[in-house]
Amino acid sequence: MVGRRNPRPRGALETEVVACLATADGPLTPAQVQAGLGGDLAYTTVLTTLARLHDKQVVTREPHGRAHAYRLVGDGVAAQAGLTAREMRKLLDGGVDRASVLAQFVGRLDEDSERLLRELLDRRAAGSEQDGTSS
């Protein structure tokens, strides 16, 4: 069995598929996505990636002949943000000491990112207080 010489980093193919769909004027079939990515991937690889994105609710699919056509649920930025957040959550849930990981993450934020994170947490807390839920 011949392996890829330069394997993609984890999640890179999903990112490429999302970018391809984001530039489309409408829904794309797996063959159209395959062509949009340069055609060097197997059709089944593209199909599997689209199915996983559908399972993650990043794309919707609609009948298109004997196949399906896929489109992003939101825009490309929102879709990519959702995939990145999912990956971050998966890494945090991976069994490493969450407090240490989060402390390292926060400790390496620049001032603008720290301010943004603080604003997002404050908004979330305010929303929880308004609807009577807690974090």
TrEMBL record:
Transmembrane segments: none annotated. Coiled coil: none annotated. GO terms for biological process: negative regulation of DNA-templated transcription. InterPro entries: BlaI_family, WH-like_DNA-bd_sf, WH_DNA-bd_sf. It holds the Pfam family Penicillinase_R. SUPFAM superfamilies: Winged helix' DNA-binding domain (SSF46785). Keywords: DNA-binding, Transcription, Transcription regulation. The keyword DNA-binding applies. One of its GO terms (molecular function) is DNA binding. Belongs to the BlaI transcriptional regulatory family. This is Penicillinase repressor.
